[in-house]
Here is the input.
Amino acid sequence: MPAVTAIVPRPFGTENSVALAHRLSAAAFSQDLFERVAAARAGVTGPLVFTTSFGLEDQAIGHAILSQNLDIDLVTLDTGRLFSETHDVWAETERRYGRRIHAIVPERSALEALIDAQGANGFRASVAARQACCHVRKVEPLNRALAGAQGWVTGLRADQSQHRAEVSFASVDTARGLIKINPLFDWTRERAVDFTQKHNVPINTLHAQGFLSIGCAPCTRAVQPGEPERAGRWWWEDEGKNECGLHANPLHLAARRAAEESALESAQS
Here is the structure.
């Protein structure tokens, strides 16, 4: 069974953090994207981490951060199963802005154990098996990426799915002990497209082929006309959250991990 990184809540000034989140969220409605990320950097004390998958939204946020040379750490989760086009836009982004984007990769022994148990594409066997793969390749690396951070910047939009409808600009993630910042919380996809075009921001060429939400290659397909934006993620599963677990409360994952362990044990038997 792959090793699982335990998440323990860090001491956090919740009362002051709630006030900060409210203040940042209230101000965000009158700010453009450049002002929003700058305000987040000014308001959050300590390390602020932006995790990018090089999708449309993340490229817009990345441009706002990098063009202002803000002191925000840029990190990507290199799962080992990304599209070559994602690596292409990653390289193009580094060339454009002259800054390295730090890669966090899966823990080797956990990944080897996962593949030994599941096989190359065993994540298709069940939802639990897929979640186990996501945990090793994405969730645990994210835990390491955010270790010590006081703020986390993401590309979530409220209109991406019903499960993201309550996303706000800033909120307190008490489980991780940080402020979570969603600069595009009230944007539409069309607005993100317009922004990247206006500022000539590098974008993944797969977007033009109907890949609206891009993750790992085996788990992403193009979206058909009329389908929800995230319908191309894990499409073989029953319609549901279409989430990998990155934005779940990490302290609520015990039941999921138990299911993952059971799936891996079944695969090994």
Summary: The two ends are 12 Å apart (CA to CA). DSSP finds eight helices and six strands in the chain.
